[in-house]
User: Fold these one by one.
Assistant:
Number 1:
Amino acid sequence: LIRPGDTDSTDSDNTDPDVNRIAGILGTGHTIVTSSSYVSGIVDLQNNQVAGNFQEGIYMVSTNATSQSAARLSNVALQGNGSVIPAYYLNLNVSGNQIVGNGNSVVAFPATGLVMRVGTTDGGFSYTYDGGYASDGFGNADRGGVIASVTGNIFNGNLGDDILVHSFTSTVDPGTGVSWTTPTSGTPVFDPTGYQSDPLARLDLILTGNVFDSVVFNNTSTILTPDGEVGAYYNNSDGTFKSRVNTPGTPEVEGPFNSATRRRNATRLASRYSTNVPLPPQPPLLNTHQEFLFPGMGNSTFRVREGSNTYTDGSSATGLLFLYDQPWLVGDPSLVDATFEASGVGFTGANIAGELPFGWGSF
């Protein structure tokens, strides 16, 4: 468990529900640094035998919610009441381990080998900032999130799936601005006072050399998140800024969306699609503010560098584990700059304009 704003870096205020789950697991480094606004940690688990735990073998929760307890079992709802601005930074290395025979007492949770639950963090920036990734692509932290390396492990005999990765909303709703008008004439108004960029769930994952029975990197279960969706999102009403609506015959408010409460995917960067067909408002309207980025519309902040992985029966898992975006279809080949370039698991129910699916990018 890693959470900013908690000075108890050892979680001595919590009782682990299965002490054997962490007893005897030693790595080459374990460092936690905390403050009121951020927490950074390094967890290095190498060459261990993680076997026979009643609960999960390795269970990770990264969150902004300081009320989240390490003592909660995995089938208890995650907390989503953290602050918008704080950030966590976690480097997780799981290498050369045997993770076998765990989870025999787990109830109503789908995976028990390695579980990674990545919460939203590090928001509150300007309307011009896209949100950033967990790393610069070379192992150095960029924005709050998880940098993980899962390499050379053997998974077998765990109840349910061997690996599960998913995002969730760990903060309260971020704020928005006051007024933005785009008239055809006259005096326009742009007052973004109070605007906060959405916190994002960010994960950069290296996955190679592992052997497993079954894994879930494209979550379809809605019982794992506080909001009953397959991943992290925000949908507080904002038809002026973040989900600027298109009102026919009313150029004062002309935007790309048809619902002020669209579910803004919090595993995607903000974007205006400036490298393809830019999203409205556009000239000849006045005050279109081309620097304004709409949240949840761009590249996935869940990125993976995938090597060779194998199923227990010896068959190759390479290329079968992740639903990747297809940014090369139009515009800039490295950017999702059209909604149809975004791939992944969609929101439940009928998706409305601007509700992009939960997919993966690469780095």
Number 2:
Amino acid sequence: MLPMRQSAILHSDEVSLVADHGSASSEQPRRSCEVPVIWARKRQGVNSVNIRWTAVISGFMTDFALTILLQMMIVLFGQSAVFTEPSLQNPIHVLLILLGASLTGVGGFVAGWFASEAFAMHGLLVGVVGILVAALANVGISVPPLLLFGQVLGCACGAFGGMLAGRLRRISPIE
């Protein structure tokens, strides 16, 4: 005899909740706990993205802390001109701007690792939050275009870091 399953499907506007109460047949081994398993699945035609802001803030804090360490190293080695007059002709300035963007990629990786879905979006939001914080901290100060390019590149690196975290993170489906 085939095992019979009792399921209840509850529809809301965005997701369907499915409750699995186990099998009614005595042929299958019973679980040690008879608590129903509930999970959410997306309904067709609904494109909703759940942003975990704790993941984004954790990624931003990682990016912020590493950027502060990088800035301390820049000042220690006497390259503080990169903050006021960055130049494409100076390879050290280019390297430091690329390093700063890659640190946003590390923060994006952290955000993607903590996210349950939309990993690249979480990584991108790390860069966006970084731009907003920098804009609020530097109100009225002219920012060199090369540093703005570094911020935009940081957003792309953050999205890449989030995507990489999503690929490396093992997500097992609930059965």
